[in-house]
Amino acid sequence: MTTIADRARELTVSRAPFVHATVVRAQDPTSARPGDDAVILPDGTIEGFVGGVCAESSVRAAALDTLRDGITLLLRVLPDGTATFPDTPGALVVVNPCHSGGAIEIFLRPVLPVPVLGVAGSTPISAAVATLAAFLDFEVSTSGGYAGATAVVVAGLGKGEQDAVRAALDAGVGFVALVASRTRGAALLDELALTDAERARVHTPAGLEIGARSPQEIALSIMAEVVRALRVDGLASSPGAPAARPQQAIDPVCGMTVLVGPDTPHARVDGQDQWFCCAGCLARYTAA
């Protein structure tokens, strides 16, 4: 039987983003117990157990938020009418109107793929970039295959640059750094006859302007630009089309925000679709 730990390792190896959720405190009569855990996928699927269906709705919504910013979160789910916990940095308190059990605390840890940096060229600058990128916990690839790369640094200094840029763009890489002067870089891109969208993905001269001179300093400026693209500009660490965030709806009975999926309780009444946090709310709505 596959455990949650096994599933987490499998997702990590396949470079799939997910959230590992662990119950750290639970108050009777909630069905969850400390140590219960689950993984939440980008489409909202929950594998494992961190509480009943009402608690799962809150966990799912909060987990998908952590996937966007990569920041861990302590989620406190309280039944309606319970006094709130004191405000704590890094904690989110939600009052779940249909969560009739005791309070529960769940630690949400987003696990995002390690970014992959492709390095093209055999020069002192490319060697310095590879060394610094590894220090920054990037997975460095010098094989020339760019599928799955987060970014590619082309530092051939005149050797094979056009082929490397073209290959990176064709592989869907979102950030291509070309080490060249402004004039030579513009001329090289003109020869490639890139579309406007492709040209926007190529950054040349590569790196932030810090007055860099040595290969190590140039590598620092290049990696600073790559990190800024990841942390500030929203460059995806794992290329590819992100899973669409599930549609949200308001439960007309309890007022909870629910994420709409194949298993979400649903009813169509008077031509209107309604979604519910649990079967109990659905039954109360249809019985009214």
TrEMBL record:
Question: What InterPro entries is this protein classified in?
Answer: MoCofactor_Util/Proc (IPR052698), XdhC_CoxI (IPR003777), XdhC_Rossmann_dom (IPR027051)
Q: Where is the XdhC- CoxI domain?
A: 15-76
Q: Where is the XdhC Rossmann domain?
A: 119-226
Source domain of life: Bacteria
Q: Which PANTHER family match?
A: ALDEHYDE OXIDOREDUCTASE MOLYBDENUM COFACTOR ASSEMBLY PROTEIN, MOLYBDENUM COFACTOR INSERTION CHAPERONE PAOD
Name used for this protein in its record: Carbon monoxide dehydrogenase accessory protein
- Organism of origin is Micromonospora orduensis
